[in-house]
Amino acid sequence: MQLSGVGVSPGRVAGPRVVVAADLREPASSPAPDDLLAEAGKIGPATEAVASSLSDRARSVSSDARSVLETTAAMAADPALAASAERLVRERSLPAPRAVWEAAGEFMTALRAAGGYLAERAADVADVRDRIVAVLSGQAPPGLPELTSPSVLVARDLAPADTAGLDPDLVLALVTEEGGPTSHTAILARALGIPAVVACAGVLELSGPGLAVDGAAGTVSSSDGRVLAPPRTPRPAWDGVGRLADGHRVKLLANVGSSADARAAAAAGAEGIGLFRTEFCYLSAASEPAEAEQRAAYAAVLEPFAGKPVVVRTLDAGSDKPLAFLPMGEEPNPALGVRGLRVAFDRPDLLDRQLSAIAAAAADTGAELSVMAPMVATAAEAAWFASRARAAGIARVGVMIEIPAAALCAAEILAEVDFVSLGTNDLAQYVFAADRQLGAVASLNDPHQPALLKLVGLVAEAGAATGKPVGVCGEAAADPSLAPVLTGLGVTSLSMNAVALAGVGTALRAVDLATCRALA
Ligand SMILES: C=C(OP(=O)(O)O)C(=O)O
Ligand SMILES: [Mg+2]
């Protein structure tokens, strides 16, 4: 049987299927066990099993990962945790999984109260807790399975932090039941060059030992589990200068989120960085990184672009990119909630520390710096951001246009800043009222939709009237069939992941500006 989803990262592969376990549910405190001593006796062997499987894994990985796994193994083996859980079974007649849950909870509360480094360890205790509970209740361990050979990974959905850590040598392809083409999980899979299909309903129920995946067509079917991974097609030749057949320039820039991305972008011939998603540096950070630490992290990303233009975006936390050190609380509609620049309105000190780290990193590396803010809704917000960035000594300041209100008031916004960059991923989500993470509405999150292109045209017109640049840094910019259309609408730069550069560069060389305008 063949299933269809939305292909978000091309490549045809087949291999054994490995399912990512669903999140663990909080264990129930009833029914009370019949034999309390026997129930308590299950806890010790479960903690030992977890500790020894973590120690085994620690021996098979490189040094950084090894010390993390060794520490987690030591926590699992901690007799205090087992003793406290056993006591809860005996004294409160709790089933063993619930007792472990509560005992670990007490440890976590104490660690959080201690603050600093110890508070950060609470997340490790939660990891150990979930592993022990999984053993006790006969479930698969939570989180990404440890792959030892090339496999096709299948999940209901995958967090951006998990996707960012995937090893392209071991993950042949990624298939999710949920997710849209512009979800951050899809963006990261593309950046890693891992063939991927999202919004593939029913994939978790497909039988058979393996899966065959076509990441361009968006199809998935059962296979016999053998690995079939033809070498990737070579990229078209491109000389690294974005221009049309008639010489009209369209800067081709890169979207990056790590120093590895930046090195790949420089090697692929990017003229600069059009979007540095700084939040990607901190998807797993438990506390706000110190300014010096941020400076070093940003410098590592900017370093391959000395003397070249770079656009660094301030943190876009919230919604589908939660950062542990910026908890947003429960929001009924996180995509419409406090995210992006909105976080900074209550925490301007956080923004100021980031701006100063970004300015220092650019000075360290000699990159030609611009900064921009995500999720700006009004000209007043753009002016607020610009004044803070300029106070940090940053000369070129822009904002993202990814909220329809901002697109409609692009002229007023451009009066406050030096450039704008269209985030077509969010702009589509908000224009079509279609969650970018939801497979069921994926067809609306399509940048070929005329309503989206009309807004792009409006913003480009405002740019032309003021003589200020208008870029596109959403996934629309990476589509070779759309690049001439965006150029015809008046867009002046396109920013995309490194693997898309040559294809877009080659497509633009085939057309002149008159053709682009006619297409638009
Ligand atoms: C580039 C964009 O930002 P992000 O994908 O990080 O939300 C966008 O919304 O198009
Ligand atoms: Mg966005």
**How many alpha or pi helices?**
21
Can you say what the CATH homologous superfamily of the largest domain is? Phosphoenolpyruvate-binding domains
Rg (C-alpha, Å): 25 Å
Percent helix: 40-55%
Main β-sheet description: 8 strands, mixed
What is the residue-averaged pLDDT?
91
Which structural class fits the helix and strand makeup? alpha/beta
Would you give the CATH topology of the largest domain?
Answer: TIM Barrel
Task: Describe the structure in brief.
Its cofactor is Mg(2+). This protein has 520 residues and is of the alpha/beta class. Helix content is 42%, strand content 15%.
Topology:
Elements: E1 2-4, E2 6-9, E3 12-19, H1 36-41, H2 43-59, H3 63-77, H4 79-92, H5 96-114, H6 116-120, H7 122-136, E4 151-155, H8 160-164, E5 171-176, H9 184-192, E6 196-198, E7 210-214, E8 219-223, E9 251-256, H10 259-267, E10 273-277, H11 291-302, E11 309-313, H12 341-346, H13 348-365, E12 368-373, H14 379-391, E13 396-401, H15 404-408, H16 410-414, E14 419-422, H17 424-431, H18 450-466, E15 470-472, H19 483-489, E16 493-496, H20 501-509, H21 513-519
Parallel strand pairs: 3-4, 4-5, 5-6, 9-10, 9-16, 10-11, 11-12, 12-13, 13-14, 14-15, 15-16
Antiparallel strand pairs: 1-8, 2-6, 3-7, 7-8
Helix pairs in contact: 2-3, 2-7, 3-7, 4-5, 5-7, 10-11, 11-13, 19-21
The structure holds phosphoenolpyruvate (PEP) and magnesium ion.
